Amino acid sequence: MVLNILLVLVSVALIVVCLLQSGKSDGVVNALTGQSSNLFAHQKERGADLVLTRITIGLAIAFFVLAILIRMG
């Protein structure tokens, strides 16, 4: 029961953090339409984007681990 509640909290947190991230779909649209873009310019994430990315990775790992634990138990 505790794992189920924890999974719901992690799921909601993961959704919120994903929605807070800046959109990166502009490069995909430009690549598909052939418009000039800086799609291949390798820009490093800095500041809030880097923190949100790391939080997203951590929450995603926690989500999968909890889901597996709930399924096994």
TrEMBL record:
NCBIfam families, sorted: secG
InterPro entries the record matches: SecG
Function statement: Involved in protein export. Participates in an early event of protein translocation.
Keyword Transmembrane among record annotations: yes
Keyword Translocase found: no
Organism field: Allocoprobacillus halotolerans
Highest taxon above the source species: Bacteria
Keyword set, alphabetical order: Cell membrane, Membrane, Protein transport, Translocation, Transmembrane, Transmembrane helix, Transport
PANTHER family for the chain: PROTEIN-EXPORT MEMBRANE PROTEIN SECG (PTHR34182)
Entry similarity comment: Belongs to the SecG family.
Localization of this protein: Cell membrane
Protein name per its UniProtKB record: Protein-export membrane protein SecG
Transmembrane segments: 51-70
Chief location: membrane
Membrane topology note: Multi-pass membrane protein
